[in-house]
């Protein structure tokens, strides 16, 4: 028995490249439809490039989808035509992708799920995600620290999803009992134009706003433009989130209207891809949950979070 | 014949009143719910925001009247905005951060709009492909191109240049902001073109019966292609007003603008299958759409989750109002 294995190994070594057992890792992510996703696409491509160079035995298939249906097809195609050994997926939506990803797991392939969990637990081998309740909590705690006396704030929410709900719940729990009152909350859909318009209307509606929880840097940019146009920049400050480079630069430079930011790094896709690759090239165990904490960025630590090359 | 001419006056009045009644109802509801609604600031906000869709919708009125459709305008606006910003940023070292750079950017936006519209128009008239399919295709192309240009992120205008360009959206004459002025000029010119020029009448003739129009020696293909070129140029103008607002463009710019523009045109009384167009109706339609959003933000009546449903109901109601009057003929 041992002989055969040794023989097999010997033949493998003598015939390079062809016989070398390449591992195919499929990566399926949403297309770059907004800033955060753009950054995520950038970090995914960068991680893949680096890994392919470092480990010639790894082969990557990257597919970007603009809707859940397309993503389901992508995953099915990867199974059928590329016979993937592992799948790294950032699901567009949990429910529609659960079945197809379960089928990949059933085929024996390694599954890494990123950011958004599947509807059924226990399918994935590795789960890499940001901490959404933590994102809301860190943001809320910052408001409490800045407004010890309480005050009036307005909030912009993202696209109605479980991510958004978890963040808002975390935020509301953190400011509870602090005297901070949320005057109004509307969906800015993580979009600059939408949040510009919502913020304009908030400004018409409320005469006394002390601060804005924009909950996302794209939305913060829209809200800031509206506040600037209304000439009310002295009255309030804005807290975004995610860690867009322009906003981090403003925090670093001590802009009073943008005192801080809270991370939700799009580079978490790189963490997921690297960890998945480790499973195939090393003996390091990587299964389980890997939760990336949300960190408060202030002027003191902003430099560490500033990535000039990233599009986000 | 006599039967048709007799009840003409009342029918016309009711049909015309449909969108105006809807608009008036919205304004009254708004004024009752929030005292800031009719304030100068809020009115300026709503009109300026509606100007992009409005300028595009005026062009869309001609396309639809001539029996066509253009789904690519939202993506086209995003693409033009991206190219315009990149071009202006590239011109800064040569031309400095003054108005000359901005005028060059505007010229590029208009030229791109013209070329994009001409491409749509020629594919539809010369290659004889359905307008729906051609513009669905170009919609995807423009959207991907802007995502590619932005490398998935956001294209931002040079900071000093943005400061110079900014008054184009926020400034104005005598308290009326530029987007509103441009929208008004475009709307009035459109109304005149639709009612008092051969171009407008040819559009209606083609939309109502292409064969008859052809026999009547109307250059059907040329007129039709021109409606798309006109729309492309208007998308360019809308982009010129849009860019100074946030000074950036990304793949999420102009999403669903095409549907909003088409909805505004139909709410305004233009027939989706062509043959009859009403530019001032389109303006009313644009204002209705703009006010719904504004009202929903200013009041706490409904859960934000239901905003889309309220919009849908009001759009359908505004059209039902007209269709019922029409059935009375």
TrEMBL record, chain A:
Pfam families: Peripla_BP_4. GO terms for cellular component: cell envelope. It comes from the Bacteria. GO terms for molecular function: carbohydrate binding. Keywords: Signal. Residues 25-257 form the Periplasmic binding protein domain. Residues 1-19 form the signal peptide. InterPro entries: Peripla_BP_I (IPR028082), SBP_2_dom (IPR025997). Gene3D superfamilies: 3.40.50.2300. It is found in: Cell envelope. Belongs to the bacterial solute-binding protein 2 family. This is Ribose transport system substrate-binding protein.
Automatic annotation (TrEMBL), chain B:
It is found in: Cell membrane. The chain crosses the membrane at residues 12-31, 51-69, 76-96, 102-124, 131-149, 169-189, 225-243, 255-272, 279-296, 302-321. Signal peptide: none annotated. Keywords: Cell membrane, Membrane, Transmembrane, Transmembrane helix. GO terms for molecular function: transmembrane transporter activity. Pfam families: BPD_transp_2. One of its GO terms (cellular component) is plasma membrane. It is a multi-pass membrane protein. This is Ribose transport system permease protein. InterPro entries: ABC_transp_permease (IPR001851).
């Amino acid at each position: 028995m041992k002989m055969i294995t040794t023989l097999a190994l010997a033949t493998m070594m003598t015939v390079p490249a062809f016989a070398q057992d390449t591992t195919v890792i499929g990566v399926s992510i949403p297309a770059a439809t907004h800033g955060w996703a753009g950054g995520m696409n950038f970090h995914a491509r960068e991680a893949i490039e680096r890994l392919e160079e470092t480990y010639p035995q790894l082969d990557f298939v990257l597919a970007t989808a603009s809707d859940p249906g397309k993503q389901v097809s992508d995953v099915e195609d990867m199974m059928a035509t590329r016979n993937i050994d592992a799948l790294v997926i950032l699901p567009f939506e949990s429910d529609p992708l659960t079945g197809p990803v379960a089928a990949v797991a059933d085929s024996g392939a390694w599954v890494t799920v990123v950011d958004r969990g599947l509807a059924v637990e226990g399918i994935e081998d590795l789960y890499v995600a940001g901490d959404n309740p933590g994102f809301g909590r860190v943001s809320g705690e910052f408001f409490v620290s800045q407004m010890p006396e309480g005050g009036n704030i307005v909030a912009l929410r993202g696209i109605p999803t479980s991510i958004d709900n978890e963040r808002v719940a975390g935020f509301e729990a953190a400011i509870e009992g602090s005297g901070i009152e949320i005057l109004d909350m509307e969906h800015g859909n993580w979009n600059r134009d939408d949040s510009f318009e919502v913020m304009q209307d908030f400004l018409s509606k409320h005469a006394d706003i002390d601060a804005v929880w924009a909950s996302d840097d794209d939305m913060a940019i829209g809200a800031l433009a509206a506040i600037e146009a209304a000439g009310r920049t002295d009255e309030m400050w804005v807290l975004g989130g995610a860690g867009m480079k322009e906003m981090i630069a403003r925090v670093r430079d001590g802009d009073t209207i943008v005192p801080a930011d809270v991370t939700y790094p799009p580079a978490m896709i790189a963490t997921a891809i690297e960890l998945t690759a480790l499973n195939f090239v090393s003996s390091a165990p990587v299964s389980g949950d890997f939760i990336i904490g949300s960190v408060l960025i202030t002027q003191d630590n902003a430099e560490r979070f500033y990535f000039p090359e990233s599009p986000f | 014949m006599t039967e048709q001419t007799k009840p003409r006056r009342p029918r016309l009045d009711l049909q015309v009143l449909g969108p105006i009644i809807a608009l008036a109802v919205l304004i009254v509801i708004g004024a009752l719910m929030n005292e800031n609604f009719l304030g100068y600031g809020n009115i300026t906000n709503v009109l300026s925001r509606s100007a992009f869709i409005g300028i595009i919708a005026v062009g869309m009125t001609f396309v639809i009247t001539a029996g066509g459709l253009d789904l690519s305008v939202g993506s086209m606006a995003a693409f033009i905005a991206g190219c315009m910003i990149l071009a202006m940023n590239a011109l800064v070292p040569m031309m400095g951060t003054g108005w000359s750079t901005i005028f060059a950017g505007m010229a590029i936006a208009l030229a791109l709009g013209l070329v994009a519209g001409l491409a749509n128009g020629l594919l539809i008239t010369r290659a004889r492909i359905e307008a729906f399919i051609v513009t669905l295709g170009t919609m995807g192309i423009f959207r991907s191109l802007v995502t590619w240009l932005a490398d998935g992120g956001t294209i931002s205008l040079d900071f000093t240049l943005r400061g110079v360009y900014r008054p184009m959206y926020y400034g104005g004459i005598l308290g009326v902001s530029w987007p509103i002025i441009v929208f008004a000029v475009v709307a009035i010119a459109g109304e005149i073109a639709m009612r008092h020029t051969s171009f407008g009448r040819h559009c209606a003739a083609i939309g109502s019966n292409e064969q008859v129009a052809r026999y009547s020696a109307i250059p059907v293909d040329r007129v039709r292609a021109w409606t798309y070129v006109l729309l492309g140029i208007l998308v360019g103008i809308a982009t010129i007003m849009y860019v100074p607002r946030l000074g950036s463009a990304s793949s999420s710019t102009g999403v669903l603008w095409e549907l909003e523009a088409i909805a505004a045109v139909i709410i305004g009384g233009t027939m989706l299958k062509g043959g009859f167009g009403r530019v001032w109706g389109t303006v009313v339609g644009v204002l209705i759409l703009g006010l719904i959003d504004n009202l929903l933000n200013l009041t706490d009546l409904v859960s934000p989750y239901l905003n889309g449903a309220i919009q849908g109901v009001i759009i359908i109601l505004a059209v039902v109002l007209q269709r019922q009057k029409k059935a009375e003929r």
